[in-house]
User: Fold this.
Amino acid sequence: MGNMFEKYAADREAEQKKIEKTVSVAGDAAEPAVEEKRTTLSLSLTVSDKKKLKMMAMEQDTTIAALIHGWIAEHSEEVDG
Assistant:
């Protein structure tokens, strides 16, 4: 049982470091990061789509939430523009 908990703790620590890095990079930008109120979204995906999102986020050293935020920002410009 110890190994399962150790792996979970290591995975969680790595995820937390990614989040902290993402937050600190946003805070270091020329313009200060705008703090927006966050909300929780329940989203139903296929298992394979979830795995793909996780891999994309890992490859870009970011979070799934940040990927989705970027997608929304990119596509809302197309709609607004």
Q: What stands out?
A: The radius of gyration is 16 Å.
